[in-house]
Amino acid sequence: DYELIPCNGASPLPNPATGRDLYCGEGPDKDECPDSSYCHWSLSFAKCCPLDESNITENNTVTESSCHHTQYKCCPDGRTVASGSNFAGCPSICQCHKLGAHESTCDAVTNQCRCKPGVGGTKCDRCEPGFWGLPLIQYGNNGCV
């Protein structure tokens, strides 16, 4: 499974008064992230992270500052463009199998991940009938055989 790391490895922004990481999740203790940052939210954390303007746009991944200006804003990872409301199409929602799927994003309506050849299931987590060898993908196979 894909592991989400707060701020993608960068240090979260601290609250100047307490020294604790700024919390941008739900509830009365929620902090607003400063303009030069974004809220990186997942099921296990909600941290204000510095913008990294050096990120390169490729596939569905863009710089944090530009995904915030798209219709559905950013996914919880702060860099992938959400393809629907409520983080539709985002890696944390899709949970595409890292061996069986081509990428970590999925269809915003069906949550179907884009599977490699011979691989099936919504999350691309199993071989289609008549195929085998999902674990062999990590050794160079293009899909199930």
Count of the separate structural domains:
2
How far apart lie the N and C ends? 22 Å
Q: Write down the overall mean pLDDT.
A: 82
Radius of gyration: 17 Å
Count, helices: 2
How much of the sequence lies in strands comes to: 15-25%
Order of H and E elements: EEHHEEEE
What summary fits the major beta sheet? 2 strands, antiparallel
Major sheet: arrangement of strands: 1-2
Q: Which structural class matches the secondary elements? A: mainly beta
Q: Give the beta-strand count.
A: 6
Tell me, briefly, the overall form.
Answer: elongated
Low-confidence stretches are 53-64
State the share of residues found in helices, binned by percent: under 10%
How does this model look, in words?
This protein has helices spanning 64-67, 91-94, and strands spanning 37-41, 46-50, 101-106, 113-115, 119-120, 126-127. It has 145 residues and is mainly beta. The longest helix has 4 residues, at 64-67. The model is unreliable at 53-64 (pLDDT under 50). It folds into 2 domains: 1-81, no CATH class; 95-139, Laminin (Ribbon).
Short structural summary:
With 145 residues, the protein is mainly beta. 6% of the residues lie in helices and 16% in strands. It folds into two domains: 81 residues, no CATH class; 45 residues, Ribbon (Laminin).
Q: Any chance you could write out the topology, listing elements then pairs?
A:
Elements: E1 37-41, E2 46-50, H1 64-67, H2 91-94, E3 101-106, E4 113-115, E5 119-120, E6 126-127
